Each structure stands twice: as structure tokens, then as C-alpha cells.
Amino acid sequence: MVVSCGSHPIFAQDSVTDTGKKAADKYFLKRKRRPSNQESSPPPVRKGPTSSSKNFAGAPRYLALQFGLFTEEETYKWGKSNKNDVSEYMIGITYRIGEWTNSMDLAIRADLVSFEVDDKSPTKLSLLPIVTFPDAKSGFPLYFGAGIGAGIFFKQAKEESHLSLDYQILAGARFFNLVSSMGLIFEAGLKNQLFLLSDGQHNGVYGSIGGVFTF
Fold first, then answer.
1. What are the tens digits of pLDDT across the range 48-87?
2. Where are the domains of the chain?
3. What architecture does CATH give domain 58-214?
4. Residue 185 and residue 178: Cα distance in Å, rounded?
5. d(CA 68, CA 18)
6. Which of 55, 63, 96, 206 falls 20 to 30 Å from 79 in CA-CA distance?
7. How far apart are CA 128 and CA 92, in angstroms?
8. With left for phi above 0 and alpha for psi between -120 and 50, is residue 108 left, alpha or beta?
9. Is the pTM of this model over 0.90?
């Protein structure tokens, strides 16, 4: 029975909504057709820092090979001839082993130095840690530093100490990656040694040049 007001029915058969299983099927069908937000918009890819960033300028690690000579020397109680100019040449290897971030570098240095005292040719290996600033990552070419360590003589003048206390004060310029991973390094400073088991002493002003390799 249909109750009407005028010519329009209040209740009609078309207004009856679907319920139960039929309604659930329609809901899941619509959800399946609707694209998900994750599929339509993939998450953005984050880009890491590149080598051109200022924070990554310079060398993360480097090895320097240097050849040098003393330009001025003072020698005390070393040998019988009492000569001041007793050095011949020096060869050095410097390897950067760490840093204090945005401030200084820590390196280990090995110097092989040849001398001529009396009729002997003393040869010394000097091992010492070196602190330099600013750090290599800053990209600034000039650097300053100092170090202190031990010297061991493989050959020595008669009745002279085979052990010494060595210390250095230095300044230089390094230019990384001029050709691939190879660059140039220039350095000058003071290298002094105090004999531990005798009274001898040697002080000298030196200059050196060499190559610096980054890796």
C-alpha cells in the first residue's frame, strides 16, 4: 500500500538502499579501484653531501713525501772538529692519522737525516707526532705546526749518544689534487735535537719540497 500526498509518493521502492553482502561488495570494489597515495606519489629521495661541498674540501687522508736540506745550523759538542754545518740531506714521510674537527690535524712523521761528523757519516731516524692547523679539510693551503719525538742513530760518531730528543716547529703550503690525487707541498722550519746520553746538540733551519697524495 502506497500513501501519497498529491501526485508524489512519500515512500517509493527506489529509495530502499542495499544492505548486507551486496553493500559490502560494492564498498570493496570501489576501494580496489581507488589508487593509493603511496603508489601515486613515491617518497622523495634524499641526496647526500657531494665532494664539491665546502665541508668536504681538501683531503680526508694524505701522505706527504719530502726532500729537504738544512740552510743554517748550530752544532754543540758533537764530534772533535766542532763544525756547525754537519748535515747532508733529509727525507721525510708524513701521514695524517686524525683530526680535531674544524681545528687541527694529527699526523705521524718519519725523517731520515744524514750527517757528516769527523770521519763518520751518522744517519738518524726521527719519529714524532705532528700537530698542524688548520685542518686539511678546510681547504686552506697554508699550515703551521709543531711536534716532538725520538731520534735513533743507526750510525754515530765515536762516544756519542745513539738516542736523541727531537722537536720541530714548521710552516708550509700544500696544494692537493693538482694532477688526479697528487699535489705539491712546501715546508720550512726548525729541527732541533738534544742527545740523551751525551752532551751533543744540533739545531737547524731547513727547507723541503715534495709531493702530497690524497686517498
1. 333 333 433 444 689 999 999 999 999 999 988 889 999 9
2. 58-214
3. Beta Barrel (2.40)
4. 11
5. 96
6. 206
7. 11
8. beta
9. no
